[in-house]
Amino acid sequence: MQAAKTKAAAAGANAPIFLQKTYTMFENSPDTVAAWANNGTTIVIKDPEEFARSVLPKYFKHNNFASYVRQLNFYGFRKYKKDDIVIVDDDKTKHWWEFYHEQFLRHRPELMAQIRRKTYSENDSTEKEDVEVLKSQVVSFQNQLEQLTGQITSLTAVVSALMARSGKRPAGPMTNASALALAAASQAKRRKMGDTDSIVQL
């Protein structure tokens, strides 16, 4: 049994370096970030941002998720699509990226040697994958922007309330930057007053 595994591993060493690194990467990645799925017939990236930040750089000289997906396509990997009948709208899995290749199977590294990189003329379909990656990144940026906008709106309301309490009015329209500056100044003033009160009590 051990001899068979050793022979399979040796055969896998003849595969392209990209595939060898990918195989090792999914063997060692945290299951919450990336893992094998469907009994070792697919690979799934559960957290693309964390995957690009902490996993990719360990095996490749970059942290570009779109570039990695493009390489998978160059080697003939395709996105795994579940049966529409069993798909459930689950926030936990809808952002997962799952791929498969008939010759890329867990515990069968010797099959990787049969995989060849596509020529340039065969890579037209990769543009669609790139668009999907960019769309996913745009959605992520939009969510972050909405969170920041909400925080700024809350800070602006706090500053306006503080100024109304003190009887002061801004000289002109309050910008986000001025709201943040006033909030910081107000907090610093309150901390200073607290320190003064402590000294008086002593």
From TrEMBL:
Its main location: nucleus. Pfam families: HSF_DNA-bind (PF00447). It is found in: Nucleus. Residues 14-118 form the HSF-type DNA-binding domain. GO terms for cellular component: nucleus. Belongs to the HSF family. This is HSF-type DNA-binding. It comes from Achlya hypogyna (Oomycete).
